[in-house]
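Encoded backbone
================
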Amino acid sequence: MLLPGAATSLSVSPDSGSVIVAGRDMLRLVSVNENHLADVLNLLTHTRKSSNLSSNNVKWRPQHASQLATGATTGAILIWDTAKRGDSLVRTLSGHSRAVNSLSFLEREPNLLLSASQDKTVRLWDVGQRLTTQQLCFTMAAEVRDVQFSSRSQMRFAVALENGTMQVYDMRSNKEVAIMPCTATSAPPYARTSICAHAHWPRRLC
């Protein structure tokens, strides 16, 4: 299947029957069968053309068959509903001053969303509220390339920073509880661009 542009991120739906693909001025819903991919919906077709809708990251909302979030290059976070007729854009969350690089929903509490940005902050949102507001803001030492909730503790998350370090934060205390510097010997240190949560976190990350 040939996409209309460069893809930057994708996310599989909770039922594994669809994939959402995001990129530069692109947000496409693709159905997944055993031996076939089909372009089902262009979510940008009926969306305001004046908006910059290029996305760095996309995440499907757990336990919600039709809802997802994208992190825009403008710093906005966009909430979408693929089942909504016409304009699929439900709401826009504002707070970051630079591009949003990564998003992470909490599996057990799918209302909670973390966003990581080039503005050196991680922000926590409650998208279940009618008027979504930012709950907490965590300031980091460098641009944040990736963020992931812990799969075992809903109060902790890990970040990968552009200065080559990885940090684990506890939201209850708003403090860093672990830090791991880049092991590369080259200077300047290599940026960490991605992390994933291991099933045995907090003992393991990858």
Summary: The longest strand covers residues 109-117. Residues 183-192, 198-202 have pLDDT under 50 and may be disordered. The chain has no helices and 16 strands.
